[in-house]
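Internal ticket - ligand job 262, S-adenosylmethionine:
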Amino acid sequence: MKIKKYQGFKALRTGQKKKKSIDVTRHWFKSSKKFYQAGQPFQTFVRKASFRQQEMLEKKIRKIVPELEKRAALEIGPGQEPLISKLDFKKIVFLDLSKAIADKLKASIRQSEIIVGDIRKLPPTITKTKERFGTIVINEVLTHLIPSERIKAIQNMLNLTDSILIIDRKQQSLGEIISASRKKGLKILRNFTGKNSIKTTLSRKKIHESSNINARKARQIQLMQVNFKFIKSFFERNGWEITIKDIESNKIVYTVFTAKRK
Ligand SMILES: C[S@@+](CC[C@H](N)C(=O)[O-])C[C@H]1O[C@@H](n2cnc3c(N)ncnc32)[C@H](O)[C@@H]1O
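stdout (structure tokens):
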């Protein structure tokens, strides 16, 4: 999936003399640190969530943490859209891989602890906390871990919390990914209607090639998306209570998953 002009990487490209095309699927897992080195370039569910959707998320959190003012909460990968900053938890801890994000959070949110760290190797300040967290929120972060690391990361936090809220894009079937990519390509191609210069002919060819993906490429994209069925059965095997809800926002379907210790 070569993308020549992808607005999301604007921050990343700043300072580069030559605009290079970026292979999103190849960079997705390896360079999430780079993606966020200058802030958050992606539109996420919470960033665009309607008032009702935000209310729904807050209700979900209150349901899994009944007396939240008596509990501490940890949000991993809050980016610039921390979900729990306005809730009355006794204590809020944020952990993000990006120092730039952590610095921005420090400037905007006062009464919380902000740590630079990796969900795959939680620092002792978190693992050695005496009291369990009321909840751990992981909002659009697991997508940046390679699939085999996702469950490992969750497993390492099972004893640290009484509940977990995970939000991520719903995993699509290969057919859905192929057809969505073609549809997107056609939509872009429509902008070239009537324009016939050499430049537009070349652009047309490139858009055609990049949007007409095969099953192998679709599989790579699918791996970027989180397999919630797998996560659900993991928590069920561990005897946790699960809720799972799909929500559409801006034509993207997200899964909102909660697990609570019984
Ligand atoms: C897509 S953004 C989501 C931000 C925010 N939660 C939202 O929904 O708008 C992903 C965030 O996770 C952080 N992140 C990525 N990989 C991480 C890791 N291994 N450990 C901790 N944070 C990570 C990034 O720095 C970024 O802030």
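Auto-summary: Residues 174-190 form the longest helix (17 residues). The beta strands are 2-3, 22-23, 72-76, 91-96, 113-116, 135-139, 163-169, 240-249, 252-261.
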